[in-house]
Amino acid sequence: MAAISADVAAAIDAAAFGGGSWDEVPGVLSKAFPGSFGGLWNMNFAESRLNFLSVQNIDPAFAKSFSDHFAYINPWIPYWSGARSGMTALSEEVFPARSFADTEFYNDWLRPQKDVEAGAGMKIVGDRGETIQFLMNFPLSLSETYGKAAVEVLTRVRGNLERSISLARLMRTSFEQAVAAAALVERNRYAAFVVERNRLVREANQMALQIFSSGQAVIVRSDRCFMANTVADARFSLILDNLSQGIPTDGARISFRTSAGAWQVTMAALPTADPSRTKLSVLPPRQLVLVLVTELNPAIPDTADLSALSAIFTLTPSEIMFCRRLLGGESVADAAEQLGITVETARTRLKSILQKTGTSRQGQLMLLLSRLQ
């Protein structure tokens, strides 16, 4: 087992510190045990998210179906989610596949692969709920021969994998901090901060810190942010979740009122490099979201002085009235209702206002209006 362990350890070190690929790691293990398949993946059990997957010596169709569906209904998940970091185990000793023979996972994925029901695996804790699993599945008939040998190999290379995961964690943190810092540098005129999917604030500029301190628009508890308006916070959560998963989101802008005034929050996913099959692939950078907070003038819409809009931008009285409503924190639909017009008419009116004022988005228009008062 020493020679096999040395080969696997070398593949791990090459993937983390040299020019190797993480795909080679399960490949080397599987090659040493004919008839088996090797796997390495990063799974966040709490969020049901597969962050990385490499399986070797397996039919590509089974690899794809595992990534798309079966990884999330794997009956071995409860065992591994509760195991300590660095633990190795044999399926036949802790949770044999025959104990879940009535499941979809067994009948539609494991069994059709023809005798790979036994397995050996190791768990390494990644970061913030992530679990790295390095494992090998093999024929049940070879359990006596392969089982203890596989556990010995996994145990021998545990230190190499732990060091590699630690390096990947540091590299990812540095990468994410650089992305977040660059985003804030470009937005120094606004209250801006960067968050993760779980609302954790990663970076914030001075203007954002002042808003956090006041608690008037954004409240921070245990380093996690919440909008000071319940309805707005629910919408913030939905948009944040979509952007973090790469789901296209229309209207990533929230306008709301608090006792301190009117606010507008604009959100955007930050670009990130594709970590595919690089040193970062096993712990890929998380999607970060930029949040901009703008304080709108809290004046009552009907009293806001926007008379200059007529002379500067040739806005009509009805368009100025519409601007007053938007400036007061109302949505397009709310403004339409208050003015007694249809939402379609309101959208057409907004489009005309944007064209006349030379602004391309409603957020830009709000900034312009707040400065003209």
Automatic annotation (TrEMBL):
Residues 312-369 form the HTH luxR-type domain. GO terms for molecular function: DNA binding. InterPro entries: Sig_transdc_resp-reg_C-effctor, Tscrpt_reg_LuxR_C, WH-like_DNA-bd_sf. One of its GO terms (biological process) is regulation of DNA-templated transcription. It comes from the Bacteria. This is HTH luxR-type domain-containing protein.
